[in-house]
Fold this protein.
Amino acid sequence: MPRKFTPKVVTANALIEGDVIWLTANDQWTRCMDDAELIEDEAHAQLRLLVAEGQLDKVVGPYLADAVSGDAGPAPTHFREEFRTRGPSNYFHGKQAEAV
Amino acid sequence: MYKYNDFDEAFIRERTRQFRAQVERRISGALTEDEFRPLRLMNGLYLQLHAYMLRVAIPYGTLDSTKMNQLAFIADKFDKGYGHFTTRQNIQYNWPKLTDVPDMLDALADVEMHANQTSGNTIRNVTSDHFAGATPDEIEDPRPVAELLRQWSTDHPEFQFLGRKFKIAVGASEHDRAVLKSHDVAVQIVKNDAGEVGYKIFVGGGLGRTPIVGQVLYDFIPRQDLLPRVESILSVYNLLGRRDNKYKARIKITVLENGLDEFRELAEKEYARIRPTFHGADLELLEDIRQYFQQPDYLDASTNAFDVAYDADPVFRSWADTNLAPHKNPDYAIATISIKAHGQTPGDATSDQMRVMADIAKEFGHDELRISHEQNVILPHVHKSHLPAVFARLQQAGLATANVGLISDIIACPGMDYCALATARSIPVAQQIATRFDELKLEHEIGQLKIKISGCINACGHHHVGHIGILGLDRAGVENYQITLGGDGSETTTIGERAGPGFAYDEIVPAIERLIYAYLDLREDEEETFLQAYRRVGLSPFKAALYPEAKEKHAA
Ligand code: SF4
């Protein structure tokens, strides 16, 4: 039996800055996961990934990451993706610092 | 220190110019990421979890104050004011922008530095003993040979597209401080029975998924045969090495699959073929290089100031006992600057700290600095009378931690705080262990102990050869830490034994604590180190301490 599709977001790193970005529903890239498009359908997910892969002059290494619907928007399920929303744990650098 | 000639200078500038054009073409869209990636990797530029990372080569870990100051300048101008010294004697900047990297490479070239071959499937930065040129137990300074190998391997046309990365280390003492047997090829400078200096060659060592201790390929090869021998080893590997499976592509697997004797035979054939093409220019070059690695102009002065401070100041005494090593000149010492203050990130130094170390080296250290694979900074030549002043300056900069070789002198790779390949974090585990044992005030009582932590099976943190090794894994979506015991990265290299099931993130520090208490209980006396005790009693008492539940179950 095929496994049930779990919701996804499209994520990548920005070409110039190298920081983490997510694809929004209106084809923009956001630096805040809250604004990402939560994709609930497998076929749609593949399509969105294709859109991202068509923008390789702006982004590097797009992929589909598991996510769930959270209070403010899509939220990560795996700790790696959670770290990507925040930055390193040894310094207050990266997204956690930019959000202030 | 080696000084670039016109050829080196032109080569580095040309590489930087090329990379600047490549970056422009990537941004304009003329190059895809697939095309650009190998180009940026050839220049040490990675894309990590949160940002790009530039890995800068510090050949055999040697720096002077000019270079160190420039590393500080780059950290301030293009990064977040710090750098991370790695287990391969390199420095990494964690936050550069793609558009800044060509300028960073130019700034490096200004002080005869570069990021070439710090990534990709080529011969990587050649590493060496961080006490080279200073330690009394060396046959000779190993760095000229390391520099010769660096020049030979730089842009070597045959070896730019190997099956996998290739790491070479050079040492010159029986006591191995350069983890020789964990390298693809290691060169140990030795003397034969006739008193001639030559090389012992190890092959096929490596950590990672399949940890293997390097084996002796040649007990002794004469001086003039070094490059043709190493080249023949590389050629055989390049042809024979597997390219179908990344995990089987290192030379250790080539040697394992074909057997050492078969490998040696093939290398012998290749050697016979290429030997006539070496006409001695390599030896002349080595002689030239050697001129740059002369002994410093030693100071002839009283060491009394050291003795006075040592007797009067217990804080200085503690640092001196822990962080100093004997020098070949009895009036001198080798001083290790710990960049692992309790709770700090192992291997990180701020730009201010870099400048302090540069100033101290210039004023008191014959302008020499070394980076160790254990992620500390070394002042290889300090006259003993200057040590109290050096110590005072280090104290002011937060660099006077007396923990070299102790439980908080932990090797930790960047792990999932930075590295895109990581399966778990390693830095916070190191920070917590160091903080905990500092609180317990047990560090000095525990004595010599090497903890090494990797954030994935690639083992950049050398966990297999840690007396206590910690490997961070992803077990069903949570961080999990596996402990290995009894590893050793010295001349008696041993791969650590797995202790049992892993521990969750919040269980790993208490587990290490239980392990240490078990050691303190069972050691014969204070002289018996953790490793010696482990070798005497084996795994089981430590296992019992790590898994008390299992014991209870057994008893029930
Ligand atoms: S051991 Fe793994 S996590 Fe650590 S630096 Fe190496 S590749 Fe990254």
